[in-house]
Amino acid sequence: MGRIFSGIQPTGNLHLGNYLGAVRNWVNLQNDFECLFCVVDMHAITVFQDPQELRNSTREVAAAMLASGVDPKKHIIFNQSQVPGHAELAWIFNCVARMGWLNRMTQFKEKAGKHKENASVGLYAYPNLMAADILLYKATHVPVGEDQKQHLELARDIAAKFNNDFGVPDFFPLPEPQIFGTATRVMSLKDGTKKMSKSDPSALSRINMTDDADTIVKKIRKAKSDADVLPETKDGLEGRPEAKNLLGIYAALADVTLDDVCTQFAGEGFGSFKKALAEVAVDKLGPIQNEMRRLVADPTSVDAVLRDGAERARAMAAPILAEIKDTVGFLKA
Ligand code: AQP
Which of 47, 198, 206 for a ligand 1 pocket mutation test, highest count of atoms within 8 Å of Cβ? Predict the structure, then answer.
């Protein structure tokens, strides 16, 4: 059985894209893989986070995993900072990865923007920490969205260079991207060409996992669409990014294909389609959101899940980290 590592940053505003693009797929992976699902709080602080909000968001992300159906007994749910091995291995990888490799990372360029000199060193070295997250457990598969593919390539390069530099050819597996046939890239409700994102300044651009039914209905009603009626097949959605996005969300939530949605709504306008979309969204997200609310109101139980997960993650990492340190030449404690 392969081993999966995947993470979400607790940077607030957990949204429908995070659910359909990540958490929901994790639920489906549970039967075929041994899984570690991590709230990557150390990644989150590469950009300043208010400490109390970081604590709240960490619990919220864990609650979303639990409420969506990830089994914390069969698999491991934990927050990264409770397992010091991530930081220890990241340092070793800082010394393996080359500046030239990191200089090519497009996400750093996008996130640092024009103010590169002001970005944290952590934001620059972020991909090395991500490689450590995966390789600390010798994970074999990593579910990734398009945007993380370059970082996963880097993790493979780091693993290969470590194996080669230290003469341990098979020590780290080269982790494989786990691409989902049904993966949904959810776009902004205000601009069908931009992905739905936690950091979009417009609250109307995303459906948050904490939004109540009225808010979901309102956001869908206000979502950007176009003046045409819905086409008979998905080919008719080409060049209509907002329409494609809204129909894609419907398909993902109702668990049907894009063509099925077109067949069902062909010839209708967005007025009636948006009503149907709001209904399916409230219907499918409601139970998950109710459970999330219950869990967030009971932080002690969420913290207990994270503590238990971290303890098991530390135990899994310990022999691997000991071997890594020995390979590097560090004297034993
Ligand atoms: N719009 C999206 N559609 C599908 N999947 C998405 N993911 C994020 N946005 C979408 C997936 O969610 C997982 C966790 O993401 P993350 O929090 O670690 O970082 P991110 O991808 O940077 O998320 P955001 O929402 O876009 O945050 P900001 O605004 O801070 O950059 C990943 O598996 C990601 O693919």
Answer: 198
The answer to whether the CB of 185 is under 6 A from ligand 1 is yes
Output the CA 259–ligand 1 centroid distance in Å. 26
Q: Which two tokens stand for residue 162?
A: 């470590």
- Condensed to tens digits (0 to 9), the pLDDT of residues 160-194 reads 999 999 999 999 999 998 876 555 789 999 999 99
**Does the beta carbon of 147 lie inside 6 Å of ligand 1?**
yes
b/e for 221-250, b at 16 or more Cβ within 10 A? eebbbeeeebbeebebbeebbbbbbbbbbb
- Per CATH, the architecture of 2-179+299-328 is what? 3-Layer(aba) Sandwich (3.40)
**How far is the C-alpha of 66 from the C-alpha of 68, rounded, in Å?**
5
Q: Give tens-digit pLDDT for 202-258.
A: 999 999 999 999 999 999 999 999 999 999 999 999 999 999 999 999 999 999 999
- Determine the Cα–Cα distance for residues 277 and 254; give it in Å rounded to an integer: 9
**If we measure between CA atoms, which residue out of 21, 18, 64, 13 comes closest to residue 202?**
13
252 burial class (0-12, 13-18, 19+ CB within 10 angstroms)? buried
For residue 295, which amino acid is it? L
Domain range 203-294, its CATH number among 3.30.1300.10, 1.10.240.10, 2.40.50.100, 3.40.50.960? 1.10.240.10
Using pLDDT thresholds of 50, 70 and 90, give the confidence band for residue 113: confident
Asked if residue 176 lies in contact with residue 142, where contact means CB atoms within 8 angstroms, the answer is yes
